[in-house]
Amino acid sequence: MKRLALALLLLCGAAxxxxxxxxxxxxxxxxxxxxxxxxxxxxLARAVGxxxxxxxxxxxxxxxxxxxxxxxxxxxxxxSAPDGYTLMMGTIGVMAVNPAIYRxxxxxxxxxxxxxxxxxxxxxxxxxxxxxxxxxQAEFIAHVRAHPGLSYGSPGNGGSPHLGMVVFAQxxxxxxxxxxxxxAAPALNDLVAGNLASAFSDPLATLPQIQAGTVRxxxxxxxxxxxxxxxxxxxxxxxxxxYQVVGWLGIVAPAGTPQAIIMRLNGxxxxxxxxxxxxxxLTAQGAEIVTGTPAEFGGYIRGEIARWAQITREAGIRAx
Length: 320
Fold this sequence. Notes:
2 domains, D-Maltodextrin-Binding Protein, domain 2, 6-stranded mixed sheet, alpha/beta, 5-stranded mixed sheet, 11 helices
């Protein structure tokens, strides 16, 4: 009888979840972003949110929550009702790095969130202010060796732009001064203004500045050149073999969100990312579309948590 009661309970729960999914969404969805406006997370969130809104006839409200390298956003999302009406744009910093570099973040990315869909991966671009007398990665390394402590900026601590420069400096044997910002756009603004010497920055925010000539591109952090910058080599090609640091973005939901809603979201997001318009737009912006199941995204997140825990420990990276 106990087994029968349990089976009936599970069936009722599954039926309720299916009913919720069929009527979902029937009100606005909030998509929390862990950075200020103008960065890759914000740009992608607005593009995807617009497509979801068009498809489902409900507003998708992008809610920027910068602060503490995304911890502010993560806490807000983790504490929200698990009903599919609050989502978060997950980043490498929020979902993989922060627990390793902060003494206490207040959330567990593996336990407090349900993966929905991985969306893109992207290489960051090593850029410098045009006034810096360097035109290649080798010249940049030589310049920094001659002027140790030159500044570089990134959106907070622990994101792929920050970690990309940490690994770069270790491999190149140079010393640089890190200046954290609340987003990619403020860091780029200071780079353009000459208040920073350099940065690794995401292509979605940086390509327009490169094309305008306000910053100079020297190398890209991923395993291959960007289609939008075919003449800019990878860091590995330009003299640091084995170097590779990439960022990624994907949608997560508060833990306990009904699986039927997770799967409905996953199907919609995968469909949006496959649209020719989105493929062309994001490829031109230097991003690589990466879709899959929630389970695949969850496995990827767990692998990233383990990888960056080791890297940050060996590099001695801490954030307070």
